[in-house]
Amino acid sequence: MSRSAVLLCLLVAACGAAPSTRVRRPRPRPLLDGRIVGGEPVDISQYPWQISLEDYGWHNCGGSVIGSTWVLTAGHCVRGTTPSELTVRAGTSTRESGGTVFDVATIIEHELHSSYTRDYDFALLEIDGSFTFGTNVQAVGLGTSELAGGTAVTITGWGTLQSGGESPVQLQAVTTSIVDRDACNDAYGGDILDTMICAGEEEGGKDSCQGDSGGPLVSGSTQYGIVSWGYGCAVEGYPGVYANVPSARSWITEKTGI
């Protein structure tokens, strides 16, 4: 038997012997990396907490200013990265242009974040330097309790406007509604955990998706969610799923003092 054939046999035997740690899921679970579907162009002065998290200068995720040196984003946006790879661009409506760019000094990914279940999809970034607050840069407030189903919320970001499309240059925003947890769990087969909330329209058409993970879901000037995951984008019957900011409020305070 050739050496390559022996190696193939050993690999087959090893794979057959290794137990799987994953369980079957009723539906695929693609990440929303954050496109805004069904929204409209807006100016950064309307949502001055919005930042672009860049990877070697390219827009990768969204995030929000929560203090003079701190940004809140999604855990999956920073998994496997180092501070030297990332920069934060604040104070601009234009993707990859304008505003002020800050190096990232520290990444704090939530200790319980699971890449598979998307549980605890939170991360904090401490910048090198501090934000100068003004018309185009402000800290967002952080919610302490979940919003009721039907409450109007707004999601912002620079993600693509349609599946497989180009990312917009101008910041986009879409307004939709919180979806009751029980209804969202019906759609996702019980996968919606306490660290998640849902938002969208029953008929679809308004959502976040590729290019904007980590971005804020707000009601007024208070943040209640972080773009996290979902089935497709703006698909009828499948709301977007967001990390539940009130569920992480004490963790944020513990790490940042905010």
TrEMBL record:
Pfam families per record: Trypsin (PF00089)
Keywords: Disulfide bond, Hydrolase, Protease, Serine protease, Signal, Zymogen
All residue ranges annotated as the Peptidase S1 domain in the record: 36-257
GO function terms (MF aspect): serine-type endopeptidase activity
Taxonomic placement: Eukaryota, Metazoa, Ecdysozoa, Arthropoda, Hexapoda
GO annotation (BP), single: proteolysis
Name of the protein in question: Trypsin 2B
This protein's record includes keyword Signal: yes
Native species: Locusta migratoria (Migratory locust)
Cited PROSITE patterns: PROKAR_LIPOPROTEIN (PS51257), TRYPSIN_DOM (PS50240), TRYPSIN_HIS (PS00134), TRYPSIN_SER (PS00135)
